[in-house]
Amino acid sequence: MADTAELKKDLWSKLAASPFVMVGLMDSPEHHIPLTAQLDEDQVDTLFFFIGKDNRLAPGGRAMAHFVSKGHDYFACFDGAARIDNDFAMIDKLWNNHVEAWFPGGKDDPNLALLRFDIESAELWETDISVSGKLKMLFGGKIKSGEEGSHAVVSTTAEG
C-alpha cells in the first residue's frame, strides 16, 4: 500500500502521461466536459485549460474535476475554484501544437481563454492490488483490507 507522498507523486506523473479530465462547475446543472489539462511544474495545485470564451466553464466558480489514468489504475477527484486567467506569459508558456489546432487564430485568437483551476482538496485512489488480491479477483474470492490499493484525501497535491 502506497503512502500519501507516493500517491501524490504518482498523480502528477500519470496526469502528465494522459492529461484528460472531466471538469464541471458545482453551481451549474450542466454536465462535466472533457478537457486537456496543461501542467505547469512551477505551480502546485493548479491545472490550466485552454477553452473558448463561450465555453460553459468560462463564468468560473466552484468546480470539480475527475481524472482516470491511461491504465485505469489511478483515479483522482479535485475540488477547487475555476476562473479565467488570461495572463499572456502563462498562455505563452503553456501553448503547444495541440492547443493551436483548436484556436486557428493562435495566441491572439479572439475566442481564446485560459481557465485556471486551483485545487483546494483532492481524493486519490491507486489500484495497486496485491498478487494475492488479483488471484482472489480472478477466482471470485474476497479482497481483504490491504489488498485493495491505496487511498488518500489531501488538502494539497504537492509532493513531499
Key descriptive features of the protein:
160 residues, alpha+beta, Pnp Oxidase, Chain A, 35% strand
Any overview of this molecule?
There is one protein chain. With 160 residues, the chain is of the alpha+beta class. The protein has one domain: Electron Transport, Fmn-binding Protein, Chain A (Pnp Oxidase, Chain A, Roll), CATH 2.30.110. Helix content is 22%, strand content 35%. It contains four helices and seven strands, in the order αβββββααβαβ. It has helices at residues 4-17, 88-94, 97-102, 131-139, and strands at residues 20-25, 33-36, 46-52, 61-68, 74-84, 112-126, 150-154. Strand 1 (20-25) and strand 2 (33-36) form a beta hairpin. The chain is globular. The mean pLDDT is 85.
Kindly identify the CATH topology: Pnp Oxidase, Chain A
Number of helices: 4
Tell me the Rg in angstroms. Answer: 18 Å
User: In the CATH classification, which architecture applies?
Assistant: Roll
What is the structure about, briefly put?
The protein is an alpha+beta fold. Helix content is 22%, strand content 35%. It has one domain: Electron Transport, Fmn-binding Protein, Chain A (Pnp Oxidase, Chain A), CATH 2.30.110.10.
SSE topology:
Layout: H1 4-17, E1 20-25, E2 33-36, E3 46-52, E4 61-68, E5 74-84, H2 88-94, H3 97-102, E6 112-126, H4 131-139, E7 150-154
Antiparallel strand pairs: 1-2, 1-4, 3-6, 4-5, 5-6, 6-7
